[in-house]
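Subject: Interface between my chains keeps coming out wrong

I've been trying for a while to get a sensible model of this assembly. When I model each chain on its own everything looks fine, but I need the whole thing in one frame so I can look at the contacts. Pasting all components below, labels as-is. Any help appreciated, I'm running out of ideas.
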Amino acid sequence: MLFGYSFADLGSILAMQGFAGLVLFSVFVLMALGLAIIFGQMGVINMAHGEFMILGAYITFLVEKLFVAFLPGAFSLYFFFAIALAFCASGLLGMAVEWLLIRHLYRRPLDTLLATWGLSLILQQVYRSIFGAREVGVELPGWMMGSMHLSGTIEIPINGLIVMAITALITAGVFILILRAPWGRQVRAVMQNRAMAGAVGIDAGRVDRLTFGLGCGIAGVAGSAFTMIGSTSPTAGQLYIVDTFLVVVFGGAQSLIGTIASAFTISQARSTMEFFLSGSMAQVVVLLFVVGILMLRPQGLFVLKLRR
Amino acid sequence: MQAGIPRLCTALGDQRMSEYSSNPPPISAARRRILQGLAALPALGLLPRSARADKPATAAVNTTGLAVTDDTVTVGILHSISGTMALSETGSVEAEKLAIAQINAQGGVLGRKINFVQEDGASDWPTFAEKARKLLVQDKCAAVFGCWTSASRKAVLPVFEQYNGMLYYPTFYEGLEQSKNVIYTGQEATQQILAGLDWVTKEKGAKTFYLLGSDYIWPRTSNKIARKHIENHMTGTRVVGEDYFPLGHTQFNSVINKMKLVKPDVIYAIIVGGSNVAFYKQLKAAGVDLNKQTLMTISVTEDEIVGIGGENIAGAYACMKYFQSIKNPNNEKFVPAFKEMWGQSSVIGDVTQAAYLGPWLWLLTAQKAGSFDIDKIAAASPGVEFKGAPEGYVRIHENHHLWSRTRVGRARTDGQYDVIYETADLMEPNPFPKGYQ
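Reply #2:
Try treating it as a single job with all components included. I did that and got this:
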């Protein structure tokens, strides 16, 4: 007996909590990846990240309504269209925002913080005016909302599996794009030395716009995926923004590997703590732990070695 | 500013009134619709006998300089229509406007039409206090209908006490408060909790309870009361777990796993806001069937189910005083009137109904007191009864809370509740419960 549980129970705890931790890990990676690209590669602190996510969620809501109205036969598959559309919508909005707002502020990082915070308030009010202040319910196809029954106490939620699959795909895509594709080389070149990148013929402005668009598009995918596990309301983006920044800063702002390692550490710590402590206390312990690490390593877990 | 005007108006009063009666103002389309919806209200037996005939003089009904003229009286509406809380408070604003329109359509209060000034608390507690001060000092509102969260009420309470205003507060809340300047039209914690626990223990044979809540004063106080009741006032029952989550928490998989192992007879959930949606979606995804696992909540009204999705919460029990599906003649008129004014797809939750009671209780109290003066309203409030309440019948207690029935509803997939139990008697409001603190 341990903590009042029998050994058979502890076995199932390990299995289910391990899975819960993995789901949380996927959620964190999905939330943080877009922000890490924008923050890490461009140095822009995007306070409106949550609102780009919620745009994805509202797109999912609209696609669901359209499918119910016009294509009820294909309802069980609408989610995939919604994700693609959410990526495009958030990405396009992101590129527009970059062109109108962000590109004028690249040399003033604190001003981008203020400007994107203002943007987040504007977007919230826009959602409120269009969709109403109340939460909207996104109905999901039946097959996405069940669980797989493995034993008496072990059940695996299917939506958790879907989130994990989406995260794996997006992460793999981003890594190939940034680390292997020619375009990614341009992004890294601009990040490391803007002037030199320009001198060798890279259109830095275009690279910036596409990078920002990519980050926002991934946020849209995250928002779309989170309709499975959370709420869709004008201010729901605020629920995610703190955790998102926590993951990115803890991992080391410029390192995508760092983001993933940090998401893994924080999610496992939290899901384990939540089991043995109350939810609020778990949060406190995890935050203390993160603050402690950051005091020892102000750059975060992983630092990119650069010659300045 | 207006103190000198009433006396002058009184002299002109008779002449104005005859003009008014011989030449009624044109009725707008919107008002006509409300009037149609209202056609049956006289059946409720609360129309003042021919309002115009016994309209008292302004100087007599207003001795403290409130915004009362011969024809109008000004009240305030103070809710968040922007920010996080807008999603909860919108329904309350709608209900209050409906009640005011209905009261005006039947002749107003003491012969005077109600004008309202609406202010936005913007989900920010200092803003609530500032706007409350504005409504009382600048607009001289005879009554204010507003606030939703306990935090906003606590922020405006000193303002209402300092400037001697009257607040009608609609939300079910944790109790532990009583003020001359506030009428609490929602239930306090013991009214909402005790009957539900008794019912679930008796009907479901429940022995073990798992308490959950968002981490702030209302869920914590309510769960404290629930725990005391489970441990000290019922036999053979015990609490097997208690957990709190930060507001806005979106990951409940760990606690769901914990509950699967502990296997409580009843999950008692007081989770609020966006967290609700995450909790019920994840509960369903984790394979917890609410038709087999009893879950009781005191925080999910029909309003919240719109966001959660009926299919995710069907089978859960909610314990509160009002459900949209209650069958009684008052409610059968209230629901269509509300939908007529605010759209067919709107839903009405417990707090929305409680907000609707505010203007009516104020009307009845003013009639009983024969005055708009705050002190007279406060003194006349105890004993005022409203037979036309959509929830049935309510009466104001000495402690400014309402006597009301508590009901248990079971969530259906279409987002409505089936009412399956109601207390035989009115529950007495007891904001400072002995033995529960």
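Reply #3:
Confirming on my end. The two ends of chain A are 57 Å apart (CA to CA).
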